[in-house]
Specification:
The complex is a heterodimer of chains A (304) and B (239). Chain A has 304 residues and is α/β, with parallel strands linked by helices. In chain A, 39% of the residues lie in helices and 14% in strands. In chain A, strands 1-2-3-4-5-6-7-8 form an eight-stranded parallel beta barrel, surrounded by six helices. In chain A, helix 8 packs antiparallel against helix 9 and helix 9 packs antiparallel against helix 10. Chain A is globular and about 60 Å long. Chain A starts with a helix and ends in an 11-residue tail after the last helix. The longest helix of chain B has 13 residues. Chain B is of the alpha/beta class and 239 residues long. In chain B, helix 6 links the parallel strand 4 and strand 5. Chain B is 28% helix and 26% strand. The radius of gyration of chain B is 22 Å and the shape is globular. The chains are: A alpha/beta (304), B alpha/beta (239). At the A-B interface, helix 5 and helix 6 of A face helix 8 of B. The structure holds iron/sulfur cluster (2 copies). One iron/sulfur cluster binds next to helix 7 of chain B.
Amino acid sequence: MKLKELFDRGEFVISSEVGPVKGAIPRDPDFVPPCQQEAQHLNGSVHAINVTDNQSAVMKLGSLAASVRLKAKGYEPIYQITCRDRNRIALQSEILTAYSLGIDNMLLLTGDHTNLGDHKEAKPVFDLDSVQLVRIAAELQEGRDMAGNPLMFQPDMFIGAVVNPNFQPLDLQLIKMHKKVDAGAQFFQTQAVYDDRVVDEFIAKAEAFGRPIQLGVVVLKSPQMGAYMNRNVSGISVPQAWIEEIGAAAKGDRKKKAAEMTGRFIKKHKSKFQGVHIMPLGWTDIVPDILAHAEIAPPRPSAG
Amino acid sequence: MHATIQKPIEEIVNYIKPGEKVFVVGCNNCAWKCHSGGEEETTAMAERLNRRGVEVVGSTTPGQRGMSLCKLDHTRKVLREDYAEQIKKADSFLVLGCGQGVHTVIDATDGAMVHPGCDTIFGGETVSDTDINEYCSLCGECVIEFTGGLCPMTLCAKSLLNGPCGGAENGKCEVDSERDCGWILIYERLKQLGRLDLLEGYREPKNHAKWSRPRTLKVSPHEATFCSQAGKRTVSNQD
Ligand code: SF4
Ligand code: SF4
């Protein structure tokens, strides 16, 4: 199902995120790969699940294989695809392949640089940027490839893109967001945000684009994680107040505290967005609790 | 200019077979500026090789300061006329210059054995006597009219054309916290110039056929023809 249907109905769209395994999926039909295990924890709490594409440039199982597996098990994947590892031929072909394998939603990104990952000597491709990729995906849906050749059958998917509200100068990030909208982006997910002011400054300008936006939140599990993200995760900053609040909770209480903090933040801002994208970093079991704190009714279970 | 850095001496010595007689050629333009193959480094290289048991039959940095090794007719004349005797004895040439210079020596000697003595690292601006920085990646299709003269192909680690990725932090690139984000530099410059309008609008993907290698350029006082896998493009420099 395309998330478009949910946004069009005015539903508050809840998504979360899983990463494919470092390795193949065994042929044993009873084997449950980790991404599917995580999806099971999220069942009933979210509408859709992002599947990351060699995130942080760390080589893993392809996002398409994992997306197809989740789809087969009844979950709604948001297939992520980045410009880092494929040229324009491969990117277009992947989009056609994804549609042909039943994928309905995709999120198109630039991708983290190879230098951040586990194959630092790889040739970074970046043949296209994310704006160009969105445009080309939209053109494929219109029945032609980027060279102008007609397609025999065209894909039909819901096209998402990302935006980073933390980016300074924000206006430069918004110029790019504007280009993505013009290129054909149908919905947005934001990078993780923790700061009320950042949310408000961003949404005041971004809502004018008239596209559904999901607020991105990453569950802050510990003060160490906050310090680590501030040091190492590009484009995200965690305010000191968050770090202190999670640090003040006893270790055994941190899951509860994290759910409360994340839920509180979502609750405060949910009316400004059309959905939320929760990145629980393995604490998938607290997602229902987060939604409860945010006073958001979870969607009905979709899979078994 | 072409920025070069000498290869480690052990690597160079390893290229040379026992008993092989070597002639060392430097470049009095770019490699001189890089201290990788000017007159001093070329003479020194001959001595360094000698000290390591390599027989050096001669060395030169063709021409005055500012003369490029890659100017074939000049290099050929110097090697053939001024160094005819030494060259006869040489089994190979160690070139302290860029890859173009190495090829120039192949052409100038009608196909002699050559060894690269440098790594050619980029085309750069000689910002000062000590600093050479890369501002252009020689892509064959210049887009910097739209970026205030700052090259996104080069200054952005991902060569993005339509604006920054989300990864910059405190103005620095996600790839290297010591290096400015190229797109923030572009934005700040255009803002200062009052030309942020240049950032609006979609920028098409690069025509990488113009970046195909090898490429050639035919030049005359009237016109020039650039030849790549994108085809031939002739442009007049008169009208
Ligand atoms: S756009 Fe191409 S030609 Fe122009 S400065 Fe950049 S790399 Fe050089
Ligand atoms: S941080 Fe800036 S320079 Fe670095 S890859 Fe992103 S846009 Fe390019």
